[in-house]
Write a structure and sequence with these properties.
14% of the residues lie in helices and 41% in strands. By secondary structure, it is mainly beta. A hairpin with a 4-residue loop joins strand 10 and strand 11.
Length: 177
Amino acid sequence: MNTADDPVKNSTESMPDNDEGHAGLAGKYLTFNLGEEGYGLEILKVQEIIGMQTITKIPRTPECVKGVINLRGKVIPVIDLRLKFSMEEQEITRESCIIVVQVQREHAALIIGILVDEVSEVLDIAGGQIEAAPSLGTQVDTRFILGMAKTESAVKILLDIDRVLSAEEMAQLKKTG
């Protein structure tokens, strides 16, 4: 297999191993939890955080697509990140919320909601706190991970929200919104 065709190899090779190479990833991240795991999203991708709303289910969509919500007159698709990441579905709690983000794919932007267990805080993460995503073998796609942030309390998985959904999933969501 050619190195250019190996997405896992590309994702880890594109990030240098020195602290200066991670300076481009430094910034503010909205952190949230899915179960016991902590994640972070670039704050500039986040439009707002809303409480749970009634989600209208859409037939024949991927399992991770919970449905759509009406956000001030605009129909927004909602993705359950637990299901997208092959985690067990969780019952909705008082802490559950929807993070409204703008996803950019090629030349198209899409506003979506991502369902998470709870929002934690906004962290200012320095480049020196970020390491490359670990290589997990050729069968594991880690392109959607920007890096691993070492915070005082735990390691947070920094997500590239633009790459969490596949091109096919994005095309399907565009039809719902």
